[in-house]
Amino acid sequence: MSGIEGARPYDALVLDLEGTICTISFVRDVLFPYASKRTEAFLRKNLHEPHIKEVIARIRADSAEEIAKGDRDVRSIGSNDEAAIGDIAKNVKYWTKKDLKIPGMKELQGHIWKEGYASGDLTAELFPDVMPVLKQLLVPIYTYSSGSREAQEQFLRHTKEGDAALYIRYKFSLADIGHKREHDSYVKLADAIGKPAQNILFVTDIEEEAAAARTAGMRALLMIRPGNLDLTQFARDNFECAYNLAAVLTKEDIERCYSLRQTPESDLLRAAIKSYRTPQKK
Ligand SMILES: [Mg+2]
């Protein structure tokens, strides 16, 4: 039995990041502006690195695609280096402002954040229940985020709570799975994990993502966190909802948690177990 009421056991857990294991604000107010401000300087410094050349080519293609779709605010990327840097920086600012999930930009952000974490400029922060729960789970855990794999890796490795990447088997991104509100992405995800969709539990803060996962046969849990958008009544009525990640613990996990020696971390865990349920799911 899972900690989620009425739920069957599951064999794999897939976690969203923003609004699920960390605040939306960290991503929007810290990470995005950090990358946006440093795009030009970063590109100038790393222009001749092969992996950055690939990112530039990707953004060039993404820009052409967005222009072809009719977005007249996107710049076509200039052919010489200096022009390309300026054009990419402008497009990154514009896409960031509109919160568009442009794959090339996501790749670039991942590389810029990597430098930020390495220099100590950036430190990620998880919701307090996350790390203690990750440590207790026996099923394989995956992430699926709009951020690139590198961005997820760096984020998870550099949290105030320690190295959370240790607990994640694989980090799926837009580049390998596709957009998070589309049915096909979750078919692909189950395929990549190698388990039947109905044995996979997907946790997110976004109703449309939960709905897309469910159409592919997955189970979905909606997370209610400080700073998230309010869920609709429809979402509250039709999905399992929880206030923290202790909701994914199975009955056996919970029993094990209660037998743990008392430490600040096991105290956090027990507090999370007591408080994950939403009023509708008593
Ligand atoms: Mg999210």
TrEMBL record:
This is Acireductone synthase. InterPro entries: Enolase-ppase_E1, HAD-like_sf, HAD-SF_hydro_IA, HAD_sf. One of its GO terms (biological process) is chromatin organization. NCBIfam families: enolase-ppase (TIGR01691), HAD-SF-IA-v1 (TIGR01549). GO terms for cellular component: nucleus. One of its GO terms (molecular function) is magnesium ion binding. Keywords: Amino-acid biosynthesis, Hydrolase, Methionine biosynthesis.
